[in-house]
TrEMBL record:
This is HAD hydrolase, family IA, variant 3. GO terms for molecular function: hydrolase activity; metal ion binding. The lineage of its organism: Bacteria, Bacillati, Bacillota, Bacilli, Lactobacillales. It holds the Pfam family HAD_2. Its cofactor is Mg(2+). Gene3D superfamilies: HAD superfamily/HAD-like, Putative phosphatase, domain 2. Keywords: Carbohydrate metabolism, Hydrolase, Magnesium, Metal-binding. Belongs to the HAD-like hydrolase superfamily. CbbY/CbbZ/Gph/YieH family.
């Protein structure tokens, strides 16, 4: 079995993608705005910058709308405990007992990653936590995964990445890593394994 497990956050630990999508679409509707894309697949697993490029393709309009979105965002924050996959605590605890190293590598904002870890009481589970904000290029570039491997001090062959989105899976494959995908209604053909559910990680 692998020595280290690297987890994505949104869509893997936190089943949040639909919540985020609906929140964005609600904001646009309430403000009589038309999003550049109304396809949830365009928003799954991508960086916040890419999200806004998809929402507002015109750069001259993007910053103004994004600024207007901030108060709405603050009033409609996700409750991470509510959207935490219920199998996560058991799986992480089991892997820790087996002596595995655990890392969190997310394209998301560092402040939100840290808030999730606090609210879900998971900070103690991870040896390494890296945000895509802290690397040169976010997913689908491999940077966040390459940086995570470096921080873990393990070889690529000793790691497995748990992802859900095409963007995240591609990033991990570009880093030369084995990928297990948590089931999601998106293209996961590049994954080495598609899991039955999150809990099946400890059955492999």
């Amino acid at each position: 079995m692998k020595k280290a497990f690297i987890f994505d956050m949104d869509g893997v630990l936190i089943r949040s993608e639909e919540f985020y999508f609906e929140r964005r679409m609600r904001f646009f509707k309430e403000n009589n705005l038309t999003p550049g894309s109304s396809d949830i697949d365009d928003y799954i697993g991508v960086s916040n910058e890419k999200v806004w490029e998809n929402l507002v393709p015109e750069p001259s309009e993007r910053e103004q709308i994004r600024t207007k979105y901030q108060p709405f965002l603050e009033k409609n924050k996700i409750n991470y405990q509510e959207y935490l996959d219920k199998q996560v605590p058991k799986v992480l605890a089991t892997l820790q007992k087996q002596g595995k190293m655990l890392a969190l590598a997310s394209a998301g904002e560092e402040k939100e990653i840290n808030r999730m870890l606090r609210e879900c009481d998971l900070a103690q589970c991870f040896n390494v936590v890296i945000s895509g904000e802290k690397v040169k290029k976010n997913k689908p570039a491999p940077d966040v995964y390459l940086e995570t491997i470096k921080a873990l001090h393990v070889s690529k062959d000793d790691c497995v990445v748990v992802e859900d989105s095409p963007t995240g899976i591609l990033a991990a494959k570009r880093a030369g890593l084995e990928v297990w995908a948590v089931p999601a209604p998106v293209d996961q053909n590049l994954a080495d394994v598609v899991l039955e559910d999150f809990g099946s990680i400890i059955e492999k």
